[in-house]
Amino acid sequence: MIEAMITPILTKPDLLYRMIDSIDHDIEHLIIIDNGRCVDRELLDTRWTQHIKRMSLISMPANLGVSGSWNLGIKAAPFARSWLICNFDITWPAGSLNMFDDLQHSDMLVLSNGSPEWCAFSLGENVVQTVGLFDEALHPAYFEDNDYERRTRQMQFTVMRSTIPVHHDNSSTLNAGYRAKNDRTFAANRDYYERKVFRCDDSAGEWKLQRRRDLSWD
To answer: Hey, what domains does the chain have and what are their CATH numbers?
Structure first.
């Protein structure tokens, strides 16, 4: 059984419902971070199947961003040995969740074979213990995955590029009206990430109020 699945969403809840419909393996706790207050609780409940033992919908008053959402999901299931984190706009091919269950490990970061690989990944507890959480200065999206993979390798943990198939509708959020905002924030996050690499900074960074305001998609 997969102990915790974390899925953030900002828009297009129909794709989230589709993802849930494709779940064919037992999930102990499905945690949905609703950054756009777009998920209908009643419709969500109709997707609740025997594979999902517990489902939590966390509706945020503002957009936490990718790093913040992933971190919140981990904090919401603090006793899991690993967390399966995925985009809302994917579907699970038959058997793919079982493959993740077989490969997930406390000492590993396991990436999918989707496009991109980080559209679904498993993160072990010992990795989080040592590497820390995702850098919330990278807001609201992009380069949080590059940063975490680099830090994981620096701390000598295994990053597995698996053969687990995942179907992904790439850029669903951007195509829902966020491209112009991303044109501005993408460059800022790239510059921040490159500066971290240059100074060999393996830390989880720091959330700062002014940066959060400057990079807002709210």
So the answer is: 5-214 (3.90.550.60)
